[in-house]
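Illustration: DUF2058 domain-containing protein.
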Amino acid sequence: MAKMSLKDQLLKAGVVDKKRVKKVNKEVYKANKETRTTVNEAKLAAEAKRQQQIERDKELNRERQLVVEQKAQQAQIRQLVEMNQIIGKGELSYNFEDESTIHRVDVDALQQRQLANGLLAIARLEQRYYIVPAVVADKIAERDASVIRVRNVVEMEQEDADDPYADYKIPDDLMW
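Result:
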């Protein structure tokens, strides 16, 4: 014999009628529906909060990655400068402006010409100035242009076709 539910037992005993059973069933159905809706809303709110947390974590990871990349970039710059620096001999001074202040670097005559012609450059790293080759200065500038303080670019002069003094060139090493 199959078990009878309480509802069926009450109907059989005559304690309740079919109308009352239908009314109670409707109320139970509505209560269950409301419970399901609040559960769904709670699930949606929890999911939204989880998505916000994921986005926040992604942003923090991006910031951390950016800091790591910047540190690596600074290490590369430091390595380039330290490995390729040229030590000045100190016979002459090369004066240059940095942050509206005149600074000087001791160089020899060849280095002075090379700085003026753009073959050498001056880089600033941790409050010190270093003389580096122009090729290295270009590599450093790709990573951080603010490190390079002096990088002269010599423009090639175009000869004027109508220049009457074209045949009379002035030597570069002429001292006045």
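Reading the tokens back as a structure: The two ends are 126 Å apart (CA to CA).
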